[in-house]
RNA sequence: GGCGCUGUACCUAAGUGGCUUAAGGGGAAGGUCUGCAAAACCUUUAUUCGUCGGUUCGAAUCCGACCGGCGCCUCCA
């Protein structure tokens, strides 16, 4: 499998350190607000990467941090007159609700920054000890000049950065590019005791501390949004490699931005949708298919219209899935076994996904399959159970397990016995009789009125099938 | 100024030297099936890949110039 590695700017063969184990770290949310649809893209694409690695047989340990202490949380807590903990708790809960709705599978671990302050202090102490960090009256900074590899991820050179650096108001730093490892507490702010006095950790140190603690000193994959490349991930490298003197991350994966009308999502432009807003109007499956139809690394425009057309695609897959499920109920042990080489589709799916997670092509393979499967169902009066199970299995492995765009156990079933079902059956049977008598006026009225109740009747040679909206 | 991404049909988006005289989804048009409708299926919808040159037996794919769009360069995924 090939993955594009940001640090080498090349596609590389993926070779985890200890196969079949894979360690994967994803920069999670700062829990100061609901996350937006652009964040959702990163969460979903990292989920698909993780699921695909599992599809390939890897045992993935997937860790996503929660930043629950940070400037914006403190600001919000002051504005809302609540404690920082309350704010963080509120939006952590919202985060978990939203990713669950988006069908992002639970990580193995969601470490919180506030529960790893001690580990961060240890790292900062080590950096201070080996001369990479300096303390200015309770604020501790990383001295970027002490790390020769600084800039290797983002492709920036230290002197160019310095030349382009904007004037920094913080004159206590030795160099404008130095970044905070430890921030001295201001009155009223949450703080922890440390060798440098009361304060709180800087933003970058948490990821170094937590990924090392839970995944080791060198991890296989570190993922996040494009904008984290600089300075966040650059600084993580400086911190971790500055202490452990070994490679921090093997493969850096970065997700492209989601734009609205070709512009970056931002609150000031007012083009800001939270994931919850979007989920109120669209299904998680349509969101996931929409993201899958573009390569993860490139930019992507978002609009309601595009999600609506993605939903049509989802419906197409669901329609086939329901068709298969209904035929499976018929129990045709001796049906036809058409020549339909499903293995070819699976091979193709894996081939394109192996190429740096080419989900647009993978989706194309699934739709090619859908067309072929529908055709075969149309052409065969009776299909063997074996054939149907193979079709179902293909969709489960690809569309369900990897992409998460269809869910077989949630298909609307209509075979549970109930009075409502029996009455519906009665109506359908009566309508069949009316149709035989060519009383189309009344039979159409029944169909229309059921339709307005959310029940869709579709006539076929073998009788009407019932679907619900 | 530095670094990076990007320009493919009505919308969207793969493809980065011959397997594709350009996938897939949406939309549109015609057809099959049906009493009709829906679904499904079939056909059609880019001789062309921002523009102009060049390299090559061969280019959307490589090189050059030019014209657009976007992002990063202060804690924003």
How would you describe this structure to a colleague?
The structure is a single chain. With about 475 residues, the protein is an alpha/beta fold. The protein has three domains: about 1-280, 3-Layer(aba) Sandwich (Rossmann fold); about 305-410, Four Helix Bundle (Hemerythrin (Met), subunit A) (Up-down Bundle), CATH 1.20.120.640; about 420-469, no CATH class. The chain contains 15 helices and 15 strands. The protein has helices at about 35-55, 70-80, 85-100, 115-130, 160-165, 205-215, 230-245, 275-280, 285-290, 305-330, 340-355, 360-380, 385-400, 420-435, 440-450, and strands spanning about 1-5, 10-15, 20-25, 60-65, 135, 140, 180-185, 200, 220-225, 250-255, 260, 265, 300, 455-460, 465-469. The strands form five sheets. The chain has a four-stranded parallel sheet with strand order 4-3-9-10, with helices on both faces. Strand 5 (about 135) and strand 6 (about 140) form a beta hairpin. Helix 4 crosses helix 7, helix 6 (about 205-215) crosses helix 7 (about 230-245) and helix 11 (about 340-355) runs antiparallel to helix 12 (about 360-380). It is elongated, with a radius of gyration of 27 Å. About 40% of the residues are buried. It binds one RNA strand of 77 nucleotides through helix 1, helix 5, helix 7, strand 12 and helix 10.
Which helices and strands, and how do they pair?
Layout: E1 2-5, E2 10-13, E3 21-26, H1 37-55, E4 59-64, H2 71-80, H3 84-101, H4 117-129, E5 133-136, E6 139-142, H5 158-164, E7 179-184, E8 199-201, H6 203-215, E9 219-225, H7 229-244, E10 249-255, E11 258-260, E12 263-264, H8 275-281, H9 284-292, E13 300-302, H10 304-329, H11 342-354, H12 359-379, H13 385-402, H14 419-436, H15 440-452, E14 455-458, E15 465-468
Parallel strand pairs: 3-4, 3-9, 9-10, 11-13
Antiparallel strand pairs: 1-2, 5-6, 6-7, 7-8, 11-12, 14-15
Helix pairs in contact: 2-3, 4-6, 4-7, 6-7, 9-10, 10-13, 11-12, 11-13, 12-13, 14-15
This protein binds one RNA strand of 77 nucleotides through α1, α5, α7, β12 and α10.
């Amino acid at each position: 499998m090939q993955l594009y590695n940001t640090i080498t700017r090349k596609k590389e063969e993926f070779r985890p350190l200890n196969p079949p184990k894979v360690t994967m770290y994803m920069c999670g949310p700062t829990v100061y607000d609901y996350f937006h649809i652009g964040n959702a893209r990163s969460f979903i694409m990292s989920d698909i990467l993780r699921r695909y690695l599992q599809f390939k047989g890897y045992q993935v340990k997937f860790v996503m941090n929660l930043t629950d202490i940070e400037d914006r949380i403190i600001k919000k807590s002051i504005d809302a007159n609540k404690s920082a903990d309350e704010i963080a708790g509120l939006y952590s809960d919202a985060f978990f609700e939203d990713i669950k709705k988006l069908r992002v599978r639970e990580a193995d671990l969601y470490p919180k920054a506030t529960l790893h302050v001690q580990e961060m202090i240890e790292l900062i102490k080590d950096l201070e000890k080996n001369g990479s960090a300096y303390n200015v009256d309770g604020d501790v900074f990383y001295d970027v000049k002490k790390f020769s590899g600084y800039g290797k991820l983002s492709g920036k050179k230290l002197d160019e950065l310095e030349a382009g650096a904007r004037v920094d108001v913080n004159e206590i730093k030795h160099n404008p590019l130095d970044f905070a490892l430890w921030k001295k507490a201001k009155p009223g702010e949450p703080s922890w005791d440390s060798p440098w006095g009361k304060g709180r950790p800087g933003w970058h140190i948490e990821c170094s501390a937590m990924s090392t603690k839970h995944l080791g000193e060198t991890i296989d994959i570190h993922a996040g949004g494009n904008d984290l490349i600089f300075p966040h991930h650059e600084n993580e490298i400086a911190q971790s490699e500055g202490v452990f003197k070994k490679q921090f991350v093997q493969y850096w994966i970065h997700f492209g931005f989601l734009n609205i009308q070709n512009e970056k999502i931002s609150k000031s432009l007012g083009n800001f949708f939270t994931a919850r807003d979007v989920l109120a109007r669209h299904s998680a499956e349509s969101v996931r298919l929409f993201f899958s139809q573009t390569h993860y690394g490139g930019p992507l425009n978002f609009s309601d219209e595009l999600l609506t057309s993605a939903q049509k695609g989802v419906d197409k897959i669901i329609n086939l899935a329901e068709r298969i499920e209904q035929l499976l109920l018929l129990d045709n042990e001796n049906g036809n076994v058409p020549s339909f080489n499903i293995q070819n589709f699976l091979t193709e799916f894996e081939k394109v996904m192996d190429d740096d997670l080419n989900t647009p092509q993978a989706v194309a393979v699934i739709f090619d399959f859908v067309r072929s499967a529908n055709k075969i169902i149309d052409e065969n009066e009776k299909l063997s159970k074996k054939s149907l199970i193979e079709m179902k299995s293909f969709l489960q492995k690809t569309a369900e397990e990897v992409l998460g765009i269809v869910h077989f156990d949630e298909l609307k079933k209509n075979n549970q016995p109930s009075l409502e079902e029996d009455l519906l059956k009665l109506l359908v049977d009566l309508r069949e009789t009316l149709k035989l008598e060519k009383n189309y006026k009344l039979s159409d009225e029944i169909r229309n009125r059921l339709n307005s109740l959310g029940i869709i009747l579709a006539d076929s040679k073998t009788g009407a099938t019932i679907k619900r909206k």
